[in-house]
């Protein structure tokens, strides 16, 4: 089978890799309503393959780029089926390839999707091709699928829904209200609404704790202690959890305080160390300066004594110079 497939693949690409042949192929086989939108004068090969490794033995992909008659960039995507038995889900597979081509178009720096026309070239033994090439027919309920994929996808934009309406959303209202305002309002202002929802729709303790930590750690809560106290006094089933959370937050605060204190201590130690180092440096500099000045004065006095004929032993005693230094001075005087 591999040898047969490779022969099919070779001859297909040999012909369809010729732009003149590809242009004739597309002008003949594209549906009229699509053909009239294609500017075949701009037809060119597009490099790259979108076929997954596990499918490469079954089909050969050829991708062409061209502009539409309105001037926009578009793609025509051609596939050849090598199996002797038709693929029932081929329409869905073609859709996957089309989406992959769109993705690569975006990755090349474009900010709009191109129209990709999947086209199946079939030469199997079963004739005619027995399956639909309409991808919605791959669903068990094509009519239902059409109502989903032929119109805008549902959008829940919580930022545009009024709080009063959110409060009617039963068990999901708590999540929606918090996430609507988590960045924009002081959560302390919502204590009454949150407590009301907690009383109306009991949530598991794990969800409650997760929500409280989320509010306190990610929300704009001006006073965490007052917020927790407000929840505890207005609910009956969560007071113990609120107390636990408060204790944990307090312990965490203490730990952060200790860490901050340690960090500040380290920083202070570094500063003090630098100050002490500079002070020691200045002292050492002054000491070295004094020593150099004293030595220079001793040399000057020694030269004067030697010039006046003073005995060497007396010069050494008077100046504290070494024998080598004195020898050098006496040699210079002669």
From TrEMBL:
Pfam families cross-referenced by the UniProt entry: Transposase_31
A biological process from GO: DNA recombination
Protein known as: Putative phage transposase
Recorded superkingdom: Bacteria
Protein family membership: Belongs to the Rpn/YhgA-like nuclease family.
Family matches, as NCBIfam families: T_den_put_tspse
Basic and acidic residues composition bias: residue spans: 275-297
GO molecular function, one term: double-stranded DNA endonuclease activity
Region of interest (Disordered), ranges: 271-297
């Amino acid at each position: 089978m591999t040898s047969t497939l490779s022969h099919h693949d070779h001859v297909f690409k040999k012909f369809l890799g010729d732009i003149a042949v590809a242009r004739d192929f597309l002008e003949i086989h594209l549906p009229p309503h699509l053909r009239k939108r294609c500017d075949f004068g701009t037809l060119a090969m597009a490099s790259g393959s979108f076929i997954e490794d596990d499918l490469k033995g079954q089909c050969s992909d050829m991708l062409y780029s061209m502009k539409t008659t309105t001037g926009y960039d578009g793609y025509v995507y051609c596939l050849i089926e090598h199996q002797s038995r038709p693929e029932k889900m081929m329409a869905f597979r073609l859709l996957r390839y089309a989406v992959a081509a769109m993705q690569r178009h975006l990755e090349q720096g474009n900010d709009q999707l191109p129209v990709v026309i999947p086209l199946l070239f079939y030469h199997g033994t079963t004739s005619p091709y027995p399956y639909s090439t309409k991808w919605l027919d791959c669903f068990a309920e094509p009519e239902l699928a059409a109502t989903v994929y032929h119109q805008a996808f549902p959008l829940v934009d919580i930022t545009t829904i009024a709080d009063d309406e959110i409060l009617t959303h039963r068990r999901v209202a708590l999540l929606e209200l918090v996430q609507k305002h988590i960045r924009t309002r002081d959560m302390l202002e919502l204590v009454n609404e949150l407590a009301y929802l907690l009383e109306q729709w009991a949530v598991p303790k794990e969800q409650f704790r997760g929500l409280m930590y989320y509010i306190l750690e990610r929300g704009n809560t001006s006073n965490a202690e007052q917020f927790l106290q407000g929840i505890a006094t207005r609910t009956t089933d969560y007071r113990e959890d609120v107390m636990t959370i408060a204790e944990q937050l307090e312990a965490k605060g203490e730990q952060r305080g200790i860490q901050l204190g340690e960090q500040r201590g380290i920083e202070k130690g570094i500063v003090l160390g630098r100050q002490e180092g500079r002070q020691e440096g200045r002292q050492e500099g002054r000491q070295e300066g004094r020593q150099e000045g004293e030595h220079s004065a001793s040399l000057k006095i020694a030269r004067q004594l030697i010039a006046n004929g003073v005995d060497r032993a007396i010069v050494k005693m008077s100046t504290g110079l070494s024998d080598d230094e004195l020898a050098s001075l006496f040699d210079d005087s002669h």
